[in-house]
Amino acid sequence: MFRNSVAVFVVVVVLCAPVKALAQDADPGGTLRRACVECHDFRRICRNLGEKSLAGWEKTVTRMYSKGAKIDAADIPALARHLHGLESGSGEICK
Ligand code: HEC
């Protein structure tokens, strides 16, 4: 039984590795919480939730990336989609 769960675990890890390598941030919320408070707090982001279009968020995240935000360029679309999907005042950002 124990050996079986180890085998399943190994298979899952091996299957997931290439998916991870193809980008698509698995935890965009966590990335934002880590990478987007280095220069300003979340209030600046919070104010814009529910306001910006998806294209607007892509522009902003791209600008933050060029300022030095520690995110992967490949994750910009996923992060922008995540921000665009959050409602105004979302507790994830606006606590
Ligand atoms: C290297 C410093 C830095 C990091 C890291 C950073 N920002 Fe910013 N951000 C700024 C500065 C400086 C401004 C004000 C000037 C401007 O808007 O370009 C700003 C302004 C903003 C604004 C308000 C202006 C607008 O276009 O709506 C938003 C929203 C924003 N940042 C979101 C983010 C997000 C999301 C992240 C994480 C991906 C992030 N920031 C990471 C420096 C940073």
Record the SSE blueprint.
Blueprint: H1 2-21, H2 28-35, H3 43-46, H4 54-67, H5 76-85, H6 91-94
The protein binds heme C.
What's a concise summary of this model?
The chain is 63% helix and 0% strand. The protein has 95 residues and is an all-alpha fold. The protein has a single domain (24-94), classed as Orthogonal Bundle (Cytochrome Bc1 Complex, Chain D, domain 2), CATH 1.10.760.
Query: How much of the polypeptide forms β-strand, as a percent range?
Result: under 5%
- Give the total of beta strands: 0
Mean pLDDT: 86
Low-confidence blocks of residues: none
CATH H-level name... which superfamily? Cytochrome c-like domain
| Small molecules bound | heme C
Multimeric status of the protein: single chain
Instruction: Give the helix level as a range of percent.
Output: 55-70%
Architecture, CATH level 2? Orthogonal Bundle
User: The biggest beta sheet, please?
Assistant: none
CATH class: Mainly Alpha
* Annotated CATH topology: Cytochrome Bc1 Complex, Chain D, domain 2
| Shape label | elongated
Order of helices and strands: HHHHHH
Q: Compute the number of structural domains.
A: 1
